[in-house]
Write a structure and sequence with these properties.
The longest helix is centred in the middle third of the chain and has 25 residues, at 172-196. This protein folds into 3 domains: 7-99 and 180-223, Up-down Bundle (Transcription Elongation Factor S-II, Chain A), CATH 1.20.930.50; 107-178, no CATH class; 237-397, no CATH class. It has a 4-stranded antiparallel β-sheet with strand order 1-2-4-3. By secondary structure, the chain is mainly α. Strand 3 and strand 4 form a beta hairpin. Helix 3 packs parallel to helix 11 (203-219) and helix 14 packs parallel to helix 18 (320-327). The protein has helices at 7-14, 19-29, 32-40, 49-52, 56-70, 77-96, 117-123, 133-137, 147-153, 172-196, 203-219, 221-227, 242-248, 253-273, 284-287, 292-307, 313-316, 320-327, 352-358, 375-397; strands at residues 107-109, 143-146, 162-164, 167-170. Bound molecules: iron/sulfur cluster (SF4). Iron/sulfur cluster binds at residues 241-243, 352, 355, 363-365, 369, 375, 378. Belongs to the eukaryotic-type primase large subunit family. GO terms for molecular function: 4 iron, 4 sulfur cluster binding; DNA-directed RNA polymerase activity; metal ion binding.
């Protein structure tokens, strides 16, 4: 198997109907230790031969088992571990392959007479007699991809690419680089889909996730020591999704209760105190030891956003504060204790589809909304990207 998101993989997966059905049966076929084998080797640096030789079915289910586990924390060290290990596994196979038609890339084979001879001679270095034939093969423009598809995957400069008639022509290494990007995107997309159904996944995936976490902590130990834990941390407003920024600025009367009480309250509370709930039906008291963080960091932001509404929400409806506590899981109250958490459900942020259905005016997607399906994952993704940026800055400064 060259690509778990490619055409061949999709045909195999089709037999299972939905992804939920596939994830239901995986635990009957593969143990947790076996699934973890796919990532455990990363520290040693070399992909073990027996993993490269997995049969298609084993390869596919061990990969999708890991994706199922990532549904419990779509952006974090676990994601990085799974991405890096699997990228290396598939890359090792792709580099040995001569047929890329199986990859999840909308590419076409280039015909022999398709390009001007002069261009080919220069780009494919055909006059360079000193180059061995295997070296020359690297320069052959064998595949093309429509420019619009290319730009979806490669947002960097087009420098170094040969473009003609609305297509980008690719040599082998350019194609592989593009595949790496598509693999990362496809993984993100898949994990975001699974994030929505994580409540329905068998316990197996939560256990697998714990195993992944342990390996990831060991693998990225130095980074963790430098940056601290990627779990609960002060809110970073600049990384919030557009819908939350709109609510923070205050919304008109028809949107106030949904925007402030349902969306903002759930978003801020999970983002601040429990970005990756470790279990289903999590309660606030599972994540914090006293209510200080809610009273001093979350509630003031909610009240200020309510005051910016027109008319101001809490002046108009003073009891709405009780409803805020209700949505945080403390029941309908003004004076909660930590022990009260669990008296009502701690509402999870609604997904984007629900937001669009309930309050379409709040959804003004930006580029980063493309791969997520919930405002919380938007924020987690941005935190993850920031921490990667900080990592590379840190490394450059060393
Ligand atoms: S796509 Fe989702 S995260 Fe983005 S603005 Fe719309 S609701 Fe918010």
């Amino acid at each position: 198997m060259l690509d778990p998101f490619g055409k061949h993989a999709q045909e195999i997966l089709k037999e299972f109907g939905s992804i939920n059905d596939l994830l239901e049966v995986i635990p009957n076929h593969i143990g947790i230790d076996m699934a973890l084998e796919r990532v455990k080797w990363l520290k040693s640096g070399e992909v073990p031969q027996h993993i490269l030789r997995f049969d298609e079915w084993k390869d596919l289910i061990s990969f999708y088992a890991l994706l199922g586990a990532l549904a419990f924390s779509p952006y974090g060290l676990e994601m990085e571990l799974v991405k890096e290990a699997n990228l290396r596994i598939y890359l090792a196979r792709i580099e040995k392959s001569r047929n890329f038609s199986e990859l999840a890339l909308p590419i076409e084979k280039v015909q022999a007479d398709e390009l001007p001879r002069k261009d080919r001679t220069i780009l494919e270095k055909s006059l360079h007699k000193e180059l061995p034939s295997e070296e020359k093969e690297k320069y052959l423009l064998q595949y093309k991809i429509a420019l619009k598809d290319f730009l979806m995957l490669n947002e960097d400069s087009l420098k170094g690419f040969y473009i003609k008639g609305g297509y980008v022509y690719l040599n082998r290494s350019q194609l592989i680089e593009l595949w790496k990007r598509s693999f990362g995107r496809n993984m993100e997309r898949a994990v975001n889909i699974l994030y929505e159904i994580r409540e329905e996944l068998p316990q197996y995936y939560m256990e697998l996730y714990s195993g992944l976490s342990e390996i990831a902590r060991e693998q990225f130990k130095e980074r963790l020591e430098r940056l601290g834990s990627a779990t609960a941390q002060p809110l970073r407003f600049e990384l919030f999704p557009p819908c939350i920024k709109i609510v923070l600025n205050g919304v008109p009367s028809g949107l106030r209760n949904y925007g402030i009480t349902v969306l903002l309250t759930s978003f801020l509370s999970y983002a601040r105190i429990c970005p990756n709930p470790s279990k289903r039906d999590v309660k606030v008291k599972d994540c914090i030891k006293d209510l200080k963080v809610i009273k001093e960091e979350i509630l003031p932001v909610i009240v200020q956003a309510g005051n910016r509404c027109s008319p101001p929400l809490f002046q108009d409806q003073p009891n709405e504060i009780k409803n805020i506590w209700y949505h945080l899981g403390f029941g309908y109250t003004l004076e909660p204790n930590l022990e009260d958490s669990g008296s009502s459900t701690w509402y999870f942020p609604p997904n984007c589809e629900k937001i669009r259905a309930s309050a379409p005016q709040l959804c003004k997607p930006d580029r980063d909304c493309r791969y997520i399906r919930n405002p919380l994952t938007y924020y987690l993704r941005k935190l993850y990207l920031e921490s990667k940026k900080e990592k590379s800055t840190g490394e450059n400064n060393e």
